[in-house]
Amino acid sequence: MQATNCFHCGDPCDKQLITFDEKSFCCAGCKTVYEIFSTNDLSHYYELQAAAGSTPDVIEGKYDFLDNEEIIAKLTEFNDGNIQIINLYIPTIHCSSCIWILENLNKLNKNVTNSQVDFPKKTIRINYKQEGFSLKELVLLLAKIGYEPYISLEDFDGKKKVSDKTLIYKLGVAGFAFGNVMFLSFPEYFDLNSSAASGGEYWLNKYQDLFRWMMFIFSLPVIFYAGWDYFISAFKGLRAKLLNIDVPIALGILVLFLRSTYDIAFNLGSGFFDSLTGLVFFLLLGKFFQQRTYSFLSFERDYKSYFPIAITRLNLKGKEETVPVQEIEKGDRILIRNEEMIPVDGTLVYGNAQIDYSFVSGESEPVSKKIGEQVFAGGKQLNGVIEMIALKSVSQSYLTQLWGNAVFKTDKVTTFQNLTDSIGKRFTIAVLSIAFISTAFWLFYDPSKAMNVFTAVLIIACPCAIALASPFTLGNMLRIFGKKKFYIKDTQTIERLAKIDTAIFDKTGTITTTQKSTAHYEGMPLTPDEESILKNTIRASNHPLSRSLYDLLKEQNIITLDEYEEHVGKGLESSKDDINMKIGSANFVGKGTSENLLDTSIYISSNNAYKGRYVFQNQYRDGLSSVFKEMSETISLAILSGDNEGEKERLEALLPKLTPLYFNQKPETKLEFIKSLQDQGKKVLMVGDGLNDAGALAQSNVGIAISENINVFSPACDAILDASKFQQLYSYILASKKAMHIIKMSFLLSLLYNCVGLYFAITGELEPVIAAILMPLSSITIVAFTTVMTNLIGRKLP
Amino acid sequence: MTIVIFYGMHHSYFYGIIQVGMSVIYVLLAISLVVAIIFFVAFIVSVRQGQYDDAYTPSVRMLFEDELVKPAKEAENKVKSKE
Question: What pLDDT is recorded for position A254?
């Protein structure tokens, strides 16, 4: 069969092929979206980008909670009873067609007055008239055309974070002052040491004071607003008895300002206002460059971004009502639909629970629960509707309590001394001793020059270039890593990553793939008839194992079964002609006990005779062995898994010998394990994927979350690594080590400039114009050097 | 306003400026300052309004057609002619 791709979403139409309007579609959903677009004259959508759509996936009743006034009030940004404005996060936004169709929503529904997409953030801001329309209808409309918004408890909690723009304002002020001071310095640059008597320009001399005092005025906001953070940081450092890099910077700025003011007040010279404002401007530029925010990613997620906003509660009369999850109290009877998440711990009272706890515990297979058994928050129901009685409120549930741990409240940034600061100490001591020694010399030799030399040393030694080396190198690395699908939260994480000596991996979802599972058959071969019945039987079942096995079995003709029955929690039974097959658990097919309790298998019997079983295995990521082998040379490794020991032997074969493997690890034990390593002085890297790793990721020195799809969720972490780049993890660690070497080389380079400057300073010949040339020159050299070097590293990265 | 008077023709003679009211230098400085401050305020206002928050979407949006009906029909014709 020739491979046809869906006209709407571009997926191959191998399971189903719908032809409509001379175009092929992979499912009814895609066809419907096409129909909606074409009947509304919106098929331009497919013009902008071919096969741009995504398959709609709507579950009945999922958005009923949006009828609740209280919830609407909290979600909307603006609501005056007539017009409402809402910001929605739509993970499927990915191309220009998406922007186009979403900004033309008013063509699909007249009540939408305006819609604006923020592509990098993947959000849409919609204004709509409430009359004859509602938030629920809006969300359903979006879902119907394949742009289902993601609404979680996080949106519900408080207002949106306002991004901090202070740095941009400060940069603006410094740049403004810098430009104007340079402009006002022009007469001084072109007409040095001139006076009317020596033939200089009359008017320049006449207005010299005006120009100089204007420079003074321009430098005031630079000192007291733009550069003020350096004084605060230096002061904090000194109080904590730390000589960080901001101490010599603050000292330099202060001396620059005082000396310049003194110079112009007593008409000794033009002052160094150009160097002063330029210095602060370059420093702030470095800070700005260091910031790289991935606005579509979040590194701060806690359980709230996973949890639904509202849940269906059954009141005493047995009627369904929607309530915000926070309002669930002990004893409430709650209805959980298929694919919904369980928000609280409770007891199952109705239905067949097949709960996927992979989020919470890392166990890969769903767990069946019987009526009367306990279910825990964070699990996802996979098999129809269940009802449960809440035993606790949301905040007291087992999963959510993990976030009470103190680890989530401490900031890694404050507990780490970066390379620049550690060099700052030695640097400050050196500069101060040079300043004092040369001053002492001049006091003895020519006291009139002593003060000049003292201030000149502090000015010229101001470590602007040193302070720029790290932000530019690491800021560049951040961008390079980002292009390689390794998204790092901030530049400091790269420094910490370079120091790692221990790496801990989670198993399920981290070193195994979640997308495909492999299975092999053990037992007597099945006849072709039996194979055909097997495939047709599991075709109808929604059990996750059946779904995976169905995809693994080879293509069979569709036949009509004579009998089909699903025994919930046990297996499937079907018959065709004279063959009766049972597929399911060992007990169900009459095998007796399972051969190995830890394996996940589907057992098969035909006419009550046991035939064999399909054993499911975790599919490990490609190149796992080689990654571990390379890493084990410099880094000690271990596996911490929430799963059982079923895969132990296979893992041992794959990984380097003597790699420690720990199974059945609970979220808190993972956290404690990392803590105990850190107490031994280890620098620990944690690589995980689920909420169960959240504590460990927060505790570790660097927490990396592996994600199959970066738009979907990953727990709070320092970096997110796209799963396809798992093999490159070690080369990324090595690259961050190289980046640290570049910073060290830049330090040497800027020290060279400092030596040249110090020559002028110590001899008492530092003219403002020399400082004004030397300072930007050294900064630009450093910026150019780091940019070239980091790009060289980036080019070598696969 | 300024009037420049030459005191002599030889180049070594300096020429002076006699001030009438405010010197032109004050006017020029004031103008340059006002212009600079206007741009500075414009920058602050645009940042505050969030004009730099999304630097990507507007670049795509400006390429879209304003009128929908016409391109949609063309699109159909194109698709049909391909087949």
Answer: 92
Rounded Cα–Cα distance for residues A716 and A693 (Å): 9
Contact with chain B for residue A47, Cβ under 8 A: yes
| AA identity, residue A140 | L
Weakest-pLDDT range from A24-38, A489-503, A732-746, B68-82 = B68-82
pTM of the predicted model as reported, rounded to 2 decimal places: 0.76
Q: Which of A20, A47, A294 to mutate to test the interface with B (most CBs of B within 10 A)?
A: A47
CA distance A145 to A33: 5
Spell out which residues of chain A touch residue B29, defining contact as CB-CB under 8 Å. 210, 214
Secondary structure string (H, E, C) spanning A538-552: HHCCCCHHHHHHHHH
CATH number at residue A722: 3.40.50.1000
* A161, pLDDT greater than 80: no
A317 and A463 both lie in a single domain: no
Give me the percent of chain A exceeding a pLDDT of 90.
12
Strand ranges inside A80-207, DSSP E = 83-89, 112-118, 123-129
Angle between helices A208-221 and A166-190 (to 10 degrees): 160
In B, which residues are within 8 Å of A162 by CB distance?
none
User: CATH no. for residue A565?
Assistant: 3.40.1110.10
pLDDT (tens digit per residue) in A211-234: 889 999 999 999 999 999 999 988
Nearest CA in chain B to A117: B57
Residue pair A523/A611 in contact (Cβ under 8 Å)? The answer is yes
Question: A282 and A427: one domain?
Answer: yes
Q: How many domains are there within chain B? A: 1
pLDDT computed for residue A564 by the predictor: 80
Rounded to whole angstroms, the Cα distance separating A692 from A667 reads: 5
Q: Any bridge partners for residue A606, and if so which?
A: A581, A609
**Residue scoring higher pLDDT (B55 or A444):** A444
CATH number at residue A119: 3.30.70.100
Return d(Cα A564, Cα A571) in angstroms, integer: 11
- Describe chain B by its helix, strand, coil percentages, rounded to 5: 55, 10, 35
Q: Are A588 and A571 contacting, i.e. CB atoms less than 8 angstroms apart?
A: yes
Chain A neighbours among B 44-83 (CB < 8 Å)? 44, 47-48, 52-57, 60-61, 63-65, 68-69, 71-73, 75-76, 78-80, 83
Phi (first) and psi of residue A484, to 5 degrees: -90, 15
- Residue B22: is its pLDDT beyond 60? no
- The parent domain of residue A389 ranges over 308-342+344-396
Residues A743 and A732 in one domain: no
